[in-house]
Structures are given as structure tokens and as C-alpha cells.
Design brief:
5 helices; globular; alpha+beta; 92 residues; Arc Repressor Mutant, subunit A; 3-stranded antiparallel β-sheet
Length: 92
């Protein structure tokens, strides 16, 4: 866990403040659309690509999403069990 905090600290561009409306949009989208590409997430949530990546990195460090790769090598994003619980208990 300490390694994850070092990764966040060393990034040049990181989230200064977490906008919970954006987190809600991302988690809701990922709850309904499983295994989706980063570009599609940004488009469907109405975010700039770089902002979307920062929020996805933050969600990853909070263990709310997991990253997988398909057979073509594209990264797919999916909610973890913790992320699903967040949606069903808090965001619904």
C-alpha cells in the first residue's frame, strides 16, 4: 500500500480535489457497462481524456476498479467488488 502512495505522490498531474459528481458518473457507468475501454469511458462520461485517466488512477488506488487486457492488448476497466458495493449501497 505504501508503494501505491509513492506512485501517486510522484505523478506530475494528480487530482487536487476529488469531484464526487465525476466519481459517481464513472462508477455508475462502470456498473452498467462492464469491461469498457478508457476512451469510451471518457466520451460517455463527458470528460477530457486526461481528466478521465486521473480519476481512473484515483479509483484504482482506492481499489474500486480493476484493469484487464483483452486479446488485442487493449486495456479494459471493470469495477471490483468494492466498487460494486459502493454503487449499490451509496450511489443508487
Amino acid at each position: 500500500m505504501a508503494d501505491e502512495f509513492k506512485k501517486i505522490k510522484n505523478r506530475k498531474k494528480e487530482l487536487k480535489r476529488v469531484n464526487w459528481n465525476i466519481v459517481k458518473r464513472l462508477v455508475t457507468l462502470l456498473y452498467h457497462d462492464e469491461k469498457i475501454k478508457r476512451t469510451n469511458i471518457a466520451m460517455k462520461c463527458g470528460l477530457r481524456y486526461d481528466s478521465c485517466l486521473r480519476y481512473l488512477d484515483w479509483l484504482d488506488t482506492m481499489d474500486l476498479i480493476k484493469r484487464e487486457f483483452d486479446q488485442d492488448g487493449f486495456e479494459l476497466i471493470n469495477l471490483t467488488k468494492k466498487g460494486r458495493n459502493l454503487y449499490t449501497k451509496k450511489l443508487r
